[in-house]
Amino acid sequence: MTTGKRWTFLPVGMLAVAAALLASALSLHDTASPASAQAAGGNTVEVGDDHFAPQTITIPVGTTVTWEVAGSHGHTVTSDTGVFSSGTTPLTQGDTFGFTFNQPGTFPYYCLFHGGPGGVGMSGTVVVTAAQSHPTPVPSPTPMPTYAPTPTPMPAAAPTPAPAPSGGAAGSSITVTLGPGRDGSQPGTAMLMAMGSETEVDINITPGAAGVPQPVHIHDGTCDTLGAVQYPLTNIVDGKSTTIVALPLSSLLTGNFAINVHMSQAEISTYVACGTIPASTTQTAPVTQLPAAGSAGLQGGYSSRGMSTWWYVLLGAGAVLLVSGATVLRKARVRR
Ligand SMILES: [Cu+2]
C-alpha cells in the first residue's frame, strides 16, 4: 500500500468535506427508481412507520444486514453505541442502508426521529453470533495495518472538526420552537426533517379542544410580520400533525417563513402558536458516524438512496473511505 492506489484515504480533517459531498450526493433524491436491494434475503429488516421488523434479528458474524424503508415517513438506523449509522438525513421509502457485522455481540439501535437509545420507541437489536465451527472462519478482520500513506498528518492543533456523533444534532433536521400566538397560547415545537427534495414537518403543541382540527400553515414573513399562506400543513388534532412538504428543507431556511397555528376553522383569525423558521446556519450533515475508538476490525456498509449507492469503509483510526457504486471492487480489495 504505497502510492498508485486508486482509492483515497481521507484524513479526519477531511471527513467533514467528504461527508458534505456525500450528503449532497444523497440529497439527489430520485423517487423514479426504487433502490436496488443489494442484500441477500433473510438479512433484511423492514423499516416501517415507527417500527423495525423484525425488531430483533440474529445473524452469524460477517453478515450484512440491510434495512429497507417501507414506511412513508423519514427514519434513520442509528446504533446506540456509534457502531453504525445511516446518518442524520432521514432515509425515505425505498431507501436502503446496509452494514456488515464483523464482530459478535449485541447491537441495539434506534431511529433518531422516532426512538431513542436503550430500546426507547422505534428501536431494534442485531444479535451477531460467533462463527460456526466451520473450518473457514470468517476472513478474520485483520486489524488494519496501521495504514502507511500518512499524508501530512493533521496538525494536531486543528480546531477539531468534530463529527458530533451525538444523536441528530446535525443540520439535516431542525426544531422550531412555537411560542404563543398573537391571540392565544398553545406552545410546542415543529421538527423539520430534510428528506431529499421534500421536508417532513412534525408538529407537537399543547393540545387545544379535544378532536377539533386546528389549521396550521407556513406563512411568508416572521411571526411579527405574518404574510400570506405559502404552504398549508396538515390540520393539528389533539396537538399533533405530520406533513410532507414538497420542498427541500434548505428552501425553507431563508428566515422568511413562519409556522402559524390557528384556533380552528371557525376561528381562523385567532392565532394560538407561532414560530419563525430560522435562516440556515450551517449545513453539515455527517453521513456516517465513526465507530467508537478502539473498536477493532474493518467496518463498513453502504447507503442507497434513489439511484445512487455509496459504499463506505470505516478505518479504525478515524478515517473513512467513501466510494461510489462503481467502485465496490475497491471495497473488496480493502477488506483482503
Ligand atoms: Cu423513525
Compile the SSE list and pairings.
Elements (H helix, E strand, L loop, with lengths): L11 H15 L17 E5 L2 E3 L2 E5 L3 E6 L8 E2 L16 E5 L4 E12 L3 E10 L43 E8 L7 E8 L2 E8 L8 E7 L8 E8 L3 E6 L3 H4 L1 E9 L8 E9 L19 E7 L2 E8 L3 E6 L3 H8 L1
Parallel strand pairs: 1-4, 3-8
Antiparallel strand pairs: 1-2, 4-6, 5-7, 6-17, 7-8, 9-10, 9-16, 10-11, 11-14, 12-13, 12-15, 15-16, 17-18, 18-19
The site of copper (II) ion has 6 residues, from β7.
Tell the overall outline: elongated
SSE series? HEEEEEEEEEEEEEEHEEEEEH
The kinds of small molecule bound in this structure are: copper (II) ion
Helix/sheet category: mainly beta
Strand line-up of the largest beta sheet: 13-12-15-16-9-10-11-14
Q: Termini distance?
A: 12 Å
Q: Mind telling me the C-alpha Rg?
A: 22 Å
Number of strands: 19
Number of helices: 3
- On the 0 to 100 scale, the average pLDDT is 71
Major β-sheet profile: 8 strands, antiparallel
Helix content: under 10%
Tell me briefly what this model is:
The protein is mainly beta and 336 residues long. It is 8% helix and 39% strand.
3D architecture notes:
This protein is mainly beta and 336 residues long. The chain contains three helices and 19 strands. The strands form three sheets. It has an eight-stranded antiparallel beta sheet. It has a seven-stranded mixed beta sheet with strand order 2-1-4-6-17-18-19, with helices on both faces. The longest helix is centred in the first third of the chain and has 15 residues. It is elongated and about 70 Å long. The two termini are 12 Å apart. The N terminus and C terminus are likely disordered. The structure holds copper (II) ion (CU). Copper (II) ion binds next to strand 7. The site of copper (II) ion has 6 residues, from strand 7.
